[in-house]
Specification:
The protein is an alpha/beta fold and 332 residues long. It contains 14 helices and five strands. It has a five-stranded mixed β-sheet, with helices on both faces.
Length: 332
């Protein structure tokens, strides 16, 4: 942490455009339902460099890359020295870090943990990457971070305001559906200006940690609230995920994604139900974005047929799982 403090102290003196509170502190911006939302400068720098590297690649234009699309160009009145430092950092990410998935890539989870801890001295980061980040940090703080942080904080403020309205009912509904307890102590969600290609991802931990993009999420409004509940439902669904895996047996090689389809369905339905009770129309993410038909069309009828009765309390978990697998087998 000492190294990061020194870097930021030096960077801050070259910029008068930074917010009054130093971004080095990485204190929670807001908290609701034991979810603490952060706008962390190091993690945002990491994601921005990752996305900038992918923006150079032809896969980015077709949406097949590992990073989200940059929400805005990374333009600014950079000096020649600053441009050289920034380009060197993007080059390094392009060669060594961008090839790895942000969630599943080798070494990426320990790297993320070190970054949110502000620990540039961590051996996970190493001397070379530390030097790259130190050099890029001054450029980022001066030219990009103030705007990125404002976007993150606006996203947090709007999302938390909505979450507060429905959190008690939604949490209770999720606990019932997943037969699991919501978080008794705070968990962390980092909001980043640009994220993964999918916009959000979660490490189940312990401790659980969600990363959500403020700049490229589709839908807005209540869709972002559903996204937060969905990301932390990755922890709640673990027992159901295990039950589905046991029921699948060898078929898990064919239907390994089924648990995630069920998670999208249950959490989306929970948010939709709570909002409907307040007279608010909400189309769950997997329907609103076409994800169900686009990616998981084979599962739509089996999931809807068997998990809607579960939502209504007409069947139990084992019945919902068994019915789903029976329909999938019949369709082979």
């Amino acid at each position: 942490m000492a190294t990061l403090t020194r870097i930021l102290a030096g960077a801050l003196c070259i910029s008068c455009a930074l917010p009054a509170q130093s971004p080095t502190e990485s204190k929670p911006v807001a908290e609701v339902a034991n979810v603490r939302f952060h706008s962390d400068v190091l993690l945002n720098l990491h994601h921005t460099l990752f996305a900038a590297a992918w923006a150079r690649r032809p896969e980015a234009a077709s949406g097949r890359g590992l990073a989200g699309k940059l929400p805005a160009p990374l333009d600014g009145p950079l000096t020649d020295e600053e441009r050289a430092a920034w380009d060197a950092a993007v080059d390094h990410y392009d060669q060594h870090i961008a090839p790895h998935d942000l969630l599943f890539g080798q070494g990426m989870e320990p790297l993320k943990i070190a970054l949110i801890a502000g620990d540039l001295d961590s051996p996970v980061i190493g001397r070379h990457l530390r030097a790259i980040l130190e050099s890029a940090m001054a450029v980022y703080l001066r030219h990009f971070w103030p705007a990125h942080d404002r976007v993150n904080r606006a996203w947090i403020a709007a999302t938390v305001d909505r979450m507060k309205q429905i959190a008690p009912e939604t949490v209770a509904r999720l606990e019932k559906l997943y037969e699991a307890q919501w978080f008794p102590s705070p968990v962390r969600a980092d909001i980043v200006w640009v994220g993964s290609r999918l916009g959000a991802f979660t490490s189940v931990g312990p401790p659980p940690h969600a990363t959500i993009s403020s700049g490229d999420m589709s839908g807005g409004g209540w869709a972002e609230v559903e996204t937060v509940f969905h990301e932390f439902s990755h922890v709640l669904i673990l027992p159901i995920q295990a039950r589905i895996a046991r029921s699948l047996g060898d078929r898990i090689r064919e239907h390994g994604v089924l648990w995630h389809v069920v998670q999208f369905y249950l959490t989306g339905a929970a948010v939709q139900e709570v909002l409907k009770g307040r007279g608010i129309d909400h189309e769950p993410y997997m329907y609103a974005t076409g994800l169900f038909d686009r990616a998981w069309g084979r599962y739509r009828r089996p999931v809807e047929t068997n998990w809607e009765p579960y939502l209504q309390g007409k069947v139990n978990l084992d019945d919902a799982i068994a019915g789903t697998l029976k329909m999938l087998d019949a369709a082979r």
